[in-house]
Amino acid sequence: MKKVQVEVLGLSQSPTSNGSYALILKEIDGDRRLPIVIGAPEAGAIAYELEGVHTSRPMSHDLMKTLIETFASKVKEICIHELKDSTFFAAITLENTTIEVDSRPSDAIALALRFDAPIFIVESLLQEAGFSLDELETDDEEDIEEIEAFDISDDDEEDEEFFLPNKKSKKEKTTSAKTDKKDLLHDELQAAIQEEDYEKAAKIRDELKKLK
Fold first, then answer.
1. Is residue 36 a contact partner of residue 88, using CB atoms and an 8 Å limit?
2. 27 exposed, middle or buried (CB, 10 Å; 0-12, 13-18, 19+)?
3. Where are the domains of the chain?
4. CA triplet 92, 149, 31: central angle to 5 degrees?
5. Average pLDDT for residues 147-168, to the nearest whole number?
6. 18: alpha, beta or left, given left = phi > 0 and alpha = psi -120 to 50?
7. Taking CA 111 as the corner, what is the angle to CA 105 and CA 115, rounded to the nearest 5 degrees?
8. DSSP strand pairing (21-27 vs 131-132)
9. CATH code for 3-128?
10. Would the pTM of this model clear 0.70, i.e. be above it?
11. Comparing 141 with 193, which gets the higher pLDDT?
């Protein structure tokens, strides 16, 4: 199982995000990126660590770090390894043990940052759900359609972290009005992804679905 090391590129939120954030991961030796929608508390835990902000009392992930260190261990690495039913799954590997702890990606990443541990994604998963900025530099309709297939939902129920690839075959256009609207939405979607406004991209993708 080939793994690709990634880093946290940043967090993105739009006015229509309903409190959720897009966590953007970028491969270290390439330009592919993977957005994962996470809740506000998890986004805060990641942002605080990235910015070196220390709270007066320990946050949940600070407490988890202390507990792990109390048992003379630390996080060796974390890996996002599965996408099932539109939900990402990650595993935390502790040092000096073969045990892998099941985790949401946001919690695993928040801990990895606190331990300065590497973050990995399975190559096949990055191919399935990630995208490259090079794909945005072409006007070829097939390439644009491939970019559209990456759908981020802003539904944050139960704090599930997901990214929904929905690669459907191209449907025949039936009216000129419908074609014009789809072309306009294509352009808006491409612009939203270029600006890394993934919440807006999800809304546009929803509109495109309705036209199919």
1. yes
2. buried
3. 3-128
4. 55
5. 42
6. left
7. 140
8. unpaired
9. 3.10.690.10
10. no
11. 193
